[in-house]
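Lay summary. Proteins are chains of building blocks that fold into shapes, and those shapes determine what they do. In this project we predict the shape from the chain. Here is one chain we studied, written as its sequence of building blocks.
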Amino acid sequence: MHELSLHARVTLLAAVAVGLAVAFVSVAAYATVRQQMYRNLDDSLVLRASQAAKSGVLTRLDNLQGVAPEALGLSDIRLGVYTAEGQRIGAISSVYPPMEEPELAIAQSQEAGVYSLRTVGVRNGEHYRVVAVPAQFCPLLHGCDENGNETVPSALVVAQSLTPIDRTLHNLGIVLWAVGLLGVIGAALAGNAIAQSGLRPLARLTGEAERIARTEELKPIAVSGSDEISRLALAFNAMLAALARSQDRQRRLVGDAGHELRTPLTSIRTNLDLLAQADKKGGLRPDDRQQLLDDVRAQMDELTNLIGDLTELARDTPQVRNAELIELSNVVEDAVIKVRRRAQSLEWDVQLTPFPVWGDERLLGRAVTNLLDNAAKYSAPDAADRSTGEGEPAGRVSVHLLDGVLTVTDSGPGIAEADLPHVFERFYRSSEARSRPGSGLGLAIVKHAAEQHGGMIYARNAPTGGAQFTLWLPHAATQSR
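And here is the predicted shape, written in a compact code that computers can read:
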């Protein structure tokens, strides 16, 4: 079956289903007709034999021996009398009906309403339905008196040939076989037509899928109707739309990545060319050489961070895999310690309360670190590692975690209203941010991590000044692992 086409399987299944139904109906009809015909025959034989035994016409010796059933046109019937002493009596020129133990028992018992009924002979050959009823036989040619003193206990035996019934059942079987065969053929033709009509939309959908695989054009398929094939086409269109969006994101990511990677690579190559040319002319001064090497290292660090961010975003998985139970306050605390080392001149206001979540500790740690790095970068006017010179902090960063809501507020200039809807887009950098280091992927990674953990992130300008980012994550008790 698995090697056949769907069209062939539908046709075959329709033929088999109808064939089984026809076979069941035919067997039931044949059995019912056969049983009814035998029942009618038995009732007729018993009734006629009982009436003949009561009338006494066939139980007189002269009538029984003188008139053969064939003379009355009853060639399929045999008549006889079986006495209680075991004597068999019938027409002289006729064959006696079967008279054996069952018929002898009826002759000897003489119980009212009792009779024997059986089939004698070979199936598909000469066989009879034999009935025996109690009777009083008159063995005298001149007849017996009305009181029945001269009669002897016996059984009137009537045998009816089953050939007519067998012939009728045989013809019925041929008709049922013919009708069943025609029904199966008709079902196969109907199944073939239904398969052609029903599978035509599926064939069209298959052709469209093959066209898309061949041309890579993710155009939606025209859908009409509301049946299962239409629902499949709608699901296929939804899949195409998701694939098109993913493809657009990949193309945009590759294009933006190529543009962003070109800048540090060009700077590194330029600095290395300067070093090579200077070495040919006798070399640079130690301070200039060290400054150039520091610039190369900074560009290498920027390139490394950019590649790491691109790798994280390129995964584009819908949810975190292999999640584990982690304490979010510990993740935030580790990120604060890490960023505080790089921004020692800032004042840090940290308030944390325990909050368990299911997730990826590495991804959440990277997201929180990006938030804190972004706040530290914009909190200081020039650099986060330089104070005002009077012992006062260069800026302030507030980090509050309460009931799964992490709020990070900086003391920078805030976010322009035109830039607020775009701060979480990949490679987006506002006009104020272009003069500062960074790839424009940090906040995109924060949004990516929040969505993977079933949370959300949004930005706004704090009432007291500066930008405020709010990250919300669901509690571990409300998540499935």
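What the prediction tells us: The first helix runs from residue 6 to 55.
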